[in-house]
Amino acid sequence: MRIPCPHCGPRTHEEFTYYGDATVRRPSATGPDAEAAFYDYVYTRDNPCGLHRELWFHQGGCHEWLVVERDTRNHDIKGAVPARSVFSADDAT
Amino acid sequence: MANRYSIFSLLKESLRGHRGWAPAWRDPEPKPAYDFIVVGGGGHGLATAYYLAKNHNARNVAVLEKGYIGGGNVGRNTTIVRSNYLMPGNIPFYELSMKLWEGLEQDLNYNAMISQRGVLNLFHNDSQRDACVRRGNAMHLHGVDGELLNREQVRKLLPMADFDNARFPIMGGLMQRRGGTVRHDAVAWGFARAADSLGVDIIQNCEVTGIRQDDNGVTGVETTRGFIGSRRIGMACAGNTSRVASLAGLRLPIESHLLQAFVSEGLKPLVPCVVTFGAGHFYISQSDKGGLVFGGNLDGYNSYAQRGNLPLVEEVCEEGVALFPCLSRVRMLRSWGGIMDMSMDGSPIIDRTAVDGLYLNAGWCYGGFKATPASGWCFAHLLATDQPHEVARAYRLDRFATGRLIDENGSGAHPNRH
Ligand SMILES: Cc1cc2nc3c(=O)[nH]c(=O)nc-3n(C[C@H](O)[C@H](O)[C@H](O)COP(=O)(O)OP(=O)(O)OC[C@H]3O[C@@H](n4cnc5c(N)ncnc54)[C@H](O)[C@@H]3O)c2cc1C
Ligand SMILES: [Zn+2]
Known about the structure:
The structure holds 2 protein chains of 2 kinds.
Chain A: E1 2-5, E2 9-12, E3 17-21, H1 34-42, E4 51-57, E5 65-71, E6 77-82, H2 83-92
Chain B: H1 7-15, E1 36-39, H2 43-56, E2 61-64, E3 80-81, H3 91-108, E4 119-123, H4 126-141, E5 147-150, H5 151-157, E6 172-176, E7 180-181, H6 184-197, E8 201-203, E9 208-214, E10 217-223, E11 226-229, E12 233-235, H7 241-246, E13 254-266, E14 274-277, E15 282-286, E16 291-302, H8 310-323, E17 332-343, E18 349-352, E19 358-362, H9 372-385, H10 399-402
Parallel strand pairs in B: 1-2, 1-12, 2-8, 4-14, 12-19
Antiparallel strand pairs in B: 3-7, 4-6, 5-6, 9-10, 10-11, 13-16, 13-17, 14-15, 15-16, 18-19
Helix pairs in contact in B: 2-6, 2-9, 3-9
Bound molecules: flavin-adenine dinucleotide and zinc ion.
């Protein structure tokens, strides 16, 4: 599996550390349903069989956090973008 | 026609050119409805159906399997069974499983090649030794056998291991002599035949594609072979648990991950028991044919592909050679992968769900083979009585929400680190 790092080019996934599902978002700690929301945030996952958006940290390279889109059925990687672009876009909406 | 095996039936059949063997189980058409449906014909599903029939007198049970019996993890694992656990929620359950293994071949009248050759966890520094002593003591408190071996005792068992490794010297190990290996296919086949002979319908090539509900809970499943009704449905789908549960709108504390395993060419006796390397994540045993059976970590990322990547192959082989330098020139024959239902605390779930009549058996991570008999025993109990079995009480689905985790590794909600 090679991850196309936007800064370093395609690199073997050994250089990266996996951090799981990139679609979960830390909920508000003060909301009325905070407890249930945190349970979902920490524990439950869609765990899709197919396209999965996931976090990888380029530890053996540029130290960028990436959001990688990968097919869990065949490990085919569709693309990778810096995580901050994804997360700041989320914050803006 | 014969489907019981003995030296006499074997002799008789060899004289007849082996034309008299009967299939070990029927291939029935699905009925319109059953009292109980078990989704998933792996070890756990088959054991569940068997114990439903045997312990609870259920006579109208179906196992629905999307592929063929033995095609999932039950036929892909490295066959290790043990009950050397640490946490109170786990030890009695795995010890029940060990006891069931010890009587299983008689019970099923099937040779599963259960070999109590011992499971030895090596330690390489003082803190690992302390951890092994603690684990051994926890086991003793629950009546489980465990023995601390010193360096010389380990050397007698494993003369070819690298005792002079400067970084990871072998200081000793925790041995569970009752642990060992079991022929995994025979477990699937033995449970299948025994369940079938008690009237269980084993329906292969039957994928569950939907779960129907009304106001009172589940009413049945949509399958590739049509709708099949039932008000008690148990899911035992291992790596595909999230997908099947999502058919009923459930989102679970589970990720699917990939684990690889390897077999070498046949060798003379080298490893008399199961050995785990404490300096990394590597374990090895030797099959009766002489092949070394070994494996290590998960590949580490979500996956439904039953094949892995090369970096993990390299890592596993490096660890093997670090432990047994003599392996460096051994040829590897085969490698394969399986999809594991990794739970968020590394321990299983045997529980009801939010949907009435729908039950969950999942989260077995890479240790579910050893659990097969007890898992079936306890899941059958839950399906038949709607009450958790005594030794599986801790395996609740809501433990993640209530904070009652069973985290043997203490690694938190990172399924790839358990
Ligand atoms: C490489 C490897 C090594 C391992 N080593 C060990 C070990 O040494 N010791 C140990 O204790 N454990 C080990 N394990 C773990 C163990 O194999 C599993 O935890 C256990 O087998 C899972 O339970 P099962 O047998 O019921 O799973 P499976 O055999 O996978 O059964 C699940 C079944 O559900 C079926 N299914 C899925 N979706 C559907 C659907 N929609 N409809 C119908 N059927 C469906 C699947 O086809 C499958 O047959 C290992 C696993 C692997 C992959
Ligand atoms: Zn990079």
